[in-house]
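User: Show me a protein chain along with its predicted structure.
Assistant: Here is one chain, sequence first, then structure tokens.
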Amino acid sequence: MSSELSTQLLHEFPELAHLSREDLEDLLSDQSYFQAAFHSLPRVKAMYQAQSELGMANEAIAKNNLALQDSLYHLRAETKDAFDEAKALEARWKELEKEQRDVYQRFTPQFLLMRLRHATIAQDEASEALATAGRDIDDFVKEFKDLRKVYHKRVIWGDRWNSGQVAWRDD
């Protein structure tokens, strides 16, 4: 072994400084001697100690995880059930919103104006039908007057609507 190599070896492994050249050569040639010397080095002992401590810590964490496993599976199932219920409620909410829109459609200003126009036309047709029917004059006048009164009220409301005098509140 060269002196430079020996110095570098002893610099990196000062624990081997007490060994003679023959002991160092035996260390390189005898595997069991090498293993015994290697495992007696303080750095190696510290590394094995750290590895052992990490292994025990890992086992403790694994045991803790196993202890929590059942409760976590239960919590996962509860969470899935709650999520599924929320999705079902969300779907029901959409159905109810559609039903509500359909119901409120009958009360939109455009729909109400259409109904007023249809009712006005129907009222006019009803009063004209009464005029062409042969009836007692007193009954006819009373009924015709009532029908035309409703008709003209509806015409007035329609005219006001068209001129912008009717305002619908949203509440």
